Structure formats: C-alpha cells, structure tokens
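In this section we walk through a basic example: taking a raw amino acid sequence and producing a predicted 3D structure, encoded as discrete structure tokens. The instruction is simple. Fold the sequence below.
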Amino acid sequence: MAEGLNTGVRGQREVVVGDEHLATRLAEGMVAVFSTPTMVGLMEGVAADSVLSLLPPGHTTVGGRVDIRHLAATPPGMRVRIYSELTAVDGRNLVFNVWAEDEIERIGEGTHYRTVIDKARFESKIARKADAASPR
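The resulting token sequence is shown next.
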C-alpha cells in the first residue's frame, strides 16, 4: 500500500502567528501566545502534505496518534516554521518526526503517526456510521 514511500521524505510550512493561532481563541483566561492545538494541527498537516503526492491514486492518510511536547511560547507576529520527516514505514503505517521553531528557538517536537487509507472505502464506512447514528 505504501510501497512508494521511503524514509527521509520531508515537509515544511511557515506561518506568522496571528489572532487565529492564539490560545486566547480557545478559552477564557488563556495567554495570547501560539496555541498547542494549532501547533499540533500544523504538524499533522505538514506530515500529511509531505506524502500525499507519493500515494497511489484514491488514497490519502489519516492521523492516528500524536506525541508532542510544546517547549516554548511564541508571541503574535513571530514567524513559526513547522517541519516533518518520515522516519518509518510499516505497511500502511507511517511515523513522522515533527518539530516547530520560531525565530528564536525550537518551540515544539515529537512524533506523529498516520495510516494510508483508500479514501472512497473510508468515506463509505463513515457514511454508514452517520446513517446508523441518524434519528429514525
């Protein structure tokens, strides 16, 4: 399934921390810094994007696990770079090393796990689940 994928595939994205990235968007009493959920979401996106063009037609990946440490706060207006590197391929299962850096230091790091799926088959299963949950 993931035969064309080899370790070493890398991804990268850069964002400037704006209001939409701040912890204050998530809950009252938070601090106006780059939020952990935003960082984790960007890490997942970079990993997914890095392998998408290498997958067979009709396939994509879904996230299954994240093990991330947020190491340092980043204020609004600062540039953040998110990186991923594919470190293991086991059948349909992919493991990525992910990290983030602002203009000063490394602000996050960890491991992200994704699974290669047949998109149509997956969407069919989800549709059946939604139908089963619908009120009758």
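Looking at the output, two observations stand out. Residues 59 and 117 are 6 Å apart (CA to CA). The longest helix spans residues 36-52. In the next section we compare this with other chains.
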